[in-house]
């Protein structure tokens, strides 16, 4: 360890450069991980909330929510097995403030344009879909503020007027759109359908012929755009991890080649192969750990700023997790590089080959 520290201090410029590259890679992976979590939450937070409230299975007729259609017979089959099974209708709507609302003209945050929203409609309120009203439409506070409306005002959904029944504080999202609640009786007029897209159930053994039964997490892939978006971001993260390992391995390989005579002299003086391997690993640990700490701390600081402008998840899992993975990948890359010292011939110190 003493030799490793002396080498790092002597060639501090080179090691600082590599440590800086590791820090940048850690920063990129941490920010990308937070963005992945934020975008994923913006697509699936409504389904996540249903899962946390006790929904165990989501039954769909197909691989996409928008293409799924549950028949009356399938719904009867599901409710016969689970009386609490909840049919859920999901659709995208154009949401605008209706004319003549006093709140809209009084609010300085009122939007001049429409808002795209995801409608969650069910026959009754439930812990899985708590925003479903008995009549009218239930808006999250962010949407109500953007439109400049409040309870009792009128909004239009796809041109159909509906009275705002309530404004709730928590806002859930589906497919990057805020979720608004609607009673099932209004879906024919607003969404031009009375056929639910899915069935939610707390029974993990519930199966219905013609429907695919999935866990809530598995149902994320049926959300429009989620699979491709999430998969692309994860692929970029994997590429960055590979780059981090290659950078550390390439640097230590070149550094080992440049130190061949010094290492050969140590071998000639009695140093074991294990000692030289541990020395190389100690050097890489100093550089990689320092770079990871700088990158993770920078990522934590920038994450707070990024979360104000873009969907971003700030947590130990999204910031600390990528840092630990970069550290592990970097050490694996260094292990592959420093094993070269095992083939160093002590005679090289005397000018031999």
Gist of the model:
Its main location: membrane. 50% of the residues lie in helices and 16% in strands.
Overall geometry: elongated
For the sheet with most strands, the description reads: 10 strands, mixed
Helix content: 40-55%
The whole-number mean of residue pLDDT values reads 87
Q: Give the radius of gyration.
A: 29 Å
Tally of structural domains: 2
How many helices does DSSP assign?
Answer: 10
In sequence order, what are the helices and strands, one letter per element? HHEHEHEEHEEEEHEEHHHH
Distance between the termini: 28 Å
Poorly predicted ranges = none
Class by alpha and beta content: alpha+beta
Share of β-strand residues: 15-25%
Number of strands: 10
Describe this structure in words.
This protein is of the alpha+beta class. The protein folds into two domains: 2-43 and 228-350, no CATH class; 56-215, no CATH class. The protein has ten helices and ten strands. It has helices at residues 2-10, 12-52, 72-81, 102-106, 141-147, 187-191, 226-258, 260-268, 273-306, 316-338; strands at 57-60, 86-97, 115-122, 137-140, 154-157, 160-168, 173-174, 177-183, 198-201, 212-214. Strands 1, 2, 3, 4, 5, 6, 7, 8, 9 and 10 form a ten-stranded mixed β-sheet that branches. A hairpin with a 2-residue loop joins strand 5 and strand 6 (160-168). The longest helix has 41 residues, at 12-52. The relative contact order is 0.20.
């Amino acid at each position: 360890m003493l030799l490793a520290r002396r080498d790092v201090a002597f060639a501090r410029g080179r090691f600082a450069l590599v440590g800086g590259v590791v820090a940048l890679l850690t920063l990129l992976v941490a920010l990308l991980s937070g963005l992945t979590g934020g975008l994923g939450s913006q697509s699936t937070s409504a389904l996540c909330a249903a899962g946390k409230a006790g929904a165990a299975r989501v039954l769909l007729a197909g691989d996409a929510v928008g293409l799924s259609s549950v028949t009356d017979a399938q719904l009867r089959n599901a409710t016969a097995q689970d009386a609490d099974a909840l049919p859920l209708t999901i659709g995208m709507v154009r949401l605008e403030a209706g004319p003549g609302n006093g709140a809209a003209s009084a609010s300085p945050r009122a939007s001049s344009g429409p808002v795209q929203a995801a409608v969650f409609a069910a026959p009754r309120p439930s812990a899985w879909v708590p925003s479903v009203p008995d009549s009218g439409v239930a808006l999250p506070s962010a949407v109500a503020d953007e439109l400049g409306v409040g309870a009792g005002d009128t909004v239009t959904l796809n041109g159909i007027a509906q009275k705002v029944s309530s404004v709730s504080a928590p806002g859930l999202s589906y497919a990057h759109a805020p979720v608004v609640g609607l009673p099932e009786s209004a879906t024919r007029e607003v969404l031009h359908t009375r056929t639910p897209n899915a069935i939610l159930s707390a029974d993990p053994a519930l199966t219905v012929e013609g429907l695919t039964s999935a866990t809530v997490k598995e149902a994320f892939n049926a959300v429009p755009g989620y699979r491709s978006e999430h998969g692309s971001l994860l692929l970029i993260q994997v590429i960055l991890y590979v780059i981090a390992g290659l950078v550390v391995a390439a640097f230590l390989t070149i550094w080992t080649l440049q130190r061949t005579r010094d290492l050969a002299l140590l071998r000639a003086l009695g140093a074991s192969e294990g000692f030289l391997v541990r020395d190389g690993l100690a050097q890489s640990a100093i550089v990689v750990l320092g770079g990871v700490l700088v990158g993770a701390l920078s990522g934590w600081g920038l994450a707070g700023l990024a979360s104000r402008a873009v969907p971003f998840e700030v947590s130990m899992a999204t910031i600390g997790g990528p840092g630990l993975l970069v550290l592990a990948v970097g050490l694996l890359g260094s292990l592959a590089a420093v094993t070269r010292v095992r083939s160093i011939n002590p005679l090289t110190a005397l000018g031999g080959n």
